[in-house]
């Protein structure tokens, strides 16, 4: 049982979350530089890897929070970097789908090898119940972040 009040605990979590976000942003920038990519491009590759299949440029705009024009330029950069390819949607020939290529997969996996192990090791210290709470926290704060992004952009 903690000796801190609920308000103190919430303040501590909030401060730690802000530090976590800043550290991960800096890590993402360093990883992107290491791979010769823009940080937004690396985030897009990461998000696309989590998707069950190819996505349209409009869907990529939604995933990344970019305008459709910026998402198109992002996909152009990914294609030029050998990370993505466009192909016609078999169900709607007017649409182009974007999927990740396997060309640079070994390079990206190798770059993630050491940090991935370090992040996994950091989680090993937690019990299954604690990991469940951490996942719930991350899911909820991701939802809040998405909601607040939309609020700020919509004015």
Query: Total strand count, please?
Result: 3
State the end-to-end CA separation. 42 Å
Helix/strand structural class: mainly alpha
Helix segment tally: 6
Strand content: 5-15%
Arithmetic mean of pLDDT:
94
Envelope shape: globular
**Any low-confidence stretches, pLDDT <50, length ≥5?**
none
Strand order of the largest sheet: 1-3-2
Largest sheet: 3 strands, antiparallel
Order of helices and strands: HHEHHEEHH
Helical residues, percent: over 70%
The whole-angstrom Rg is: 18 Å
Q: Can you tag this structure with a few keywords?
A:
3 strands; 3-stranded antiparallel sheet; 155 residues
Overall description:
The radius of gyration is 18 Å and the shape is globular. The protein has a three-stranded antiparallel sheet with strand order 1-3-2. It has helices at 6-35, 39-50, 57-64, 68-80, 105-124, 128-154, and strands at residues 55-56, 84-88, 96-100. With 155 residues, it is mainly alpha-helical. The chain is 71% helix and 8% strand. The model has no long low-confidence stretch (mean pLDDT 94). It contains six helices and three strands, in the order ααβααββαα. β2 and β3 (96-100) form a beta hairpin.
In short:
With 155 residues, the protein is mainly alpha-helical. The chain has 6 helices and 3 strands, in the order ααβααββαα.
């Amino acid at each position: 049982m903690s000796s801190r009040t609920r308000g103190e605990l919430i303040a501590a979590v909030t401060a730690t979350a802000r530090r976590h976000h800043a550290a991960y942003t800096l890590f993402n920038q360093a990883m992107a530089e290491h791979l010769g990519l823009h940080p937004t491009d690396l985030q897009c590759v990461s998000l696309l890897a989590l998707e069950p299949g190819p996505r349209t440029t409009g869907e990529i705009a939604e995933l990344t929070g970019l305008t459709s024009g910026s998402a198109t330029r992002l996909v152009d950069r990914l294609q030029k970097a050998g990370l993505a390819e466009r192909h016609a949607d078999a169900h709607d020939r007017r649409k182009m789908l974007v999927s990740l290529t396997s060309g640079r997969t070994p390079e990206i996996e190798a770059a993630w090898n050491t940090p991935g192990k370090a992040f996994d090791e950091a989680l090993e210290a937690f019990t299954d119940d604690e990991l469940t709470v951490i996942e719930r926290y991350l899911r909820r704060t991701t939802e809040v972040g998405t909601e607040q992004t939309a609020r700020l952009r919509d004015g």
